[in-house]
Amino acid sequence: MSAAIVLGLLGLAGLSQSAQLMQKFAWRAIDYAFPSEAQRMQAMQDGFYIPENNLPVGIEIWKNKLFISVPRWTDKGVPSTLNYIPLDVAYSTSPKLNPYPDWATNEQGNCNGITTTYRIRVDECDRLWVLDSGTVGIGNTTQQVCPYALHAFDLKTDRHILRYQFKDEDVNANTFIANIAVDVGATCSDVHVYASDELGYGLLVYSLEQNDSWRFEHGFFHPDPLRGDFNIGGLNFQWEAEGIFGMALTPRGPMDRLLFFHPLASNREFFVPTSVLKAKPNKDSYRQFQALGERTSHSTSEVMTDDGIMFFNMIDENAVGCWNSQTPYSSENQEVVAKDDIGLIFPSDVRVRYGHLWVISDRMPNHLIDKLDFVNDVNFRIFFAPVEELIRGTICDARPSYDHNGYGHPLGPNGISHLSPAATYPLQPPSRKPIYSYPISNRPYHRG
Ligand SMILES: *[C@@H]1O[C@H](CO)[C@@H](O)[C@H](O)[C@H]1NC(C)=O
Ligand SMILES: *[C@@H]1O[C@H](CO)[C@@H](O)[C@H](O)[C@H]1NC(C)=O
Question: Which PANTHER family does this entry report, sorted A to Z (predicted)?
Fold first, then answer.
């Protein structure tokens, strides 16, 4: 068999496993670095801290800090929503979370601070962007205790530097926003933040320079009615209403960046040039949004490296996939880079920082729909791996002389690459190394 045929077969979703994901942290339950053990005991007595109410969902990395978000899905028991773990000091496998920047900022219902955040993003100017959904609860228990607001922190000084409250017309009665993308232009004041309204089906844009926000609506933000059925972690359930969620930007450069996005209840991927988003909606906006292609899995989170490799979580495959944006977006050009049917149940967020891919998994559906065992099971894990190693030998490991001076659109007008797929096949067959992880419990996941 020729190399090309071998690759063609392996390229079909999920057959190869080239990954060496290393487990950095793992928890049965999340705990916090209270000032003293007495205060921790008091918090547990008061219901200020209820371990089984804490499910981490988002991650971000800046220098020696690993940020972790924990939404408040119950009216009690989550002491802090925006947290970090110092990566540079002695730590255990299951370190306690530290509120960022402090406890006061994380006070529930303090609208100048953060009540609930889902996803957090560091920008190229050492700022942490945090969307406060202002909510307590989930689904039909949701209370909007503060308005949606965007916050920024200066990571060098840990100072809160911005709070922008979204306008009434930016949201609607169904609005639920769990994700943001941060687009830094030529200077640190040229920033646009895009926020995906998953249940209100909109895309909010905030301009730092204009200190203003606006909202786009489009059919591409809606769920696909044929993709509302999910099978994850041994559960079957329907998330039929979930619209636009995951977003990723093409690398910074002189060209107009693209924002990729996809609804959660959908396998489709779309994109829009950011110049369209930066201008407010007008009669021509509609046609600037384009369909790209399909995945074989539902996905929440996606990210693109500076080389134009996209990583995305494959939530019904317990896996992370990759796509080289110089090739057409189709399943033949996507490959699983990490899969683990115990450790990667619901890989909730993926990030690329300093040449490494980071992944957090949290068994979210099992928590929301069923029940996690916080005493015996390992429920939350954080993995990382060097991007180079992860994609070596995969279909994504083909980056023919990328023109960094003028990051061009990899895609033609119809989402079709100017490169023929054949030109991008790597020369060696993919390696098939097993997943590498250190579970702190070998007990397989089970329900009940
Ligand atoms: C909220 O939704 C859950 C299921 O998602 C249901 O069991 C419960 O009855 C609902 N409660 C209310 C007050 O509608
Ligand atoms: C930004 O706009 C809001 C109104 O939406 C205003 O309250 C706030 O003071 C403005 N911030 C700056 C820095 O101008």
Answer: PROTEIN YELLOW, PROTEIN YELLOW-RELATED
Residue 90 banded pLDDT, cuts 50, 70, 90: low
**Among protein residues, the one whose CA lies closest to atom 13 of ligand 1:** 140
Lowest mean pLDDT among 31-40, 70-79, 88-97, 154-163: 88-97
Task: Read off the pLDDT of residues 285-320 as tens digits, 9 standing for 90 and up.
Answer: 999 999 999 999 999 999 999 999 999 999 999 999
The answer to whether 70 touches 30, Cβ cutoff 8 Å, is yes
Place of tokens 């994109």: 271
Q: What is the Cα–Cα distance from 159 to 171, expressed in whole angstroms?
A: 28
Ligand that lies nearest to the alpha carbon of residue 137, given by its number in the listed order: 1
- Average model confidence (pLDDT) across the chain: 87
User: The tokens of 191 are what?
Assistant: 């920033």
Residue 312 near residue 321, CB atoms below 8 Å? yes
* Alpha carbon nearest to ligand 1 atom 14, residue: 140
Q: Which atom of ligand 1 is nearest to the CA of 141?
A: 1
The first and second tokens of residue 241, run together, are: 């209403």
pLDDT at residue 133 above 90?
A: yes
Q: Whose CA is nearest to atom 9 of ligand 1?
A: 140
Q: What is the pLDDT of residue 399?
A: 57
**β pairing state of 380-386 and 65-69:** unpaired
Select from 73, 75, 140 the residue to mutate for testing ligand 1; criterion: most ligand atoms less than 8 Å from CB: 140
Q: Are 262 and 268 in contact (CB under 8 A)?
A: yes
Tell whether the model's pLDDT for residue 191 goes beyond 60.
yes
- Taking the centre of ligand 1 as the mean of its atom positions, its distance from the CA of residue 138, in whole angstroms, is 11
pLDDT value of residue 265: 98
| Three-class DSSP category at 198 | coil
* Ligand 1, residues at Cβ distance < 6 Å: 139-140
Atom of ligand 1 at shortest range from CA of 140: 1
Closest-approaching ligand to the CA atom of 238: 1
Residues ≥6 apart with Cβ < 8 Å to 230: 236, 237, 238, 239, 298, 315, 316, 365
Give mean pLDDT, residues 396-408.
Answer: 53
CB atoms within 10 A of CB 104: 10
State how far the Cα of 307 lies from the Cα of 250, in Å rounded to an integer. Answer: 9
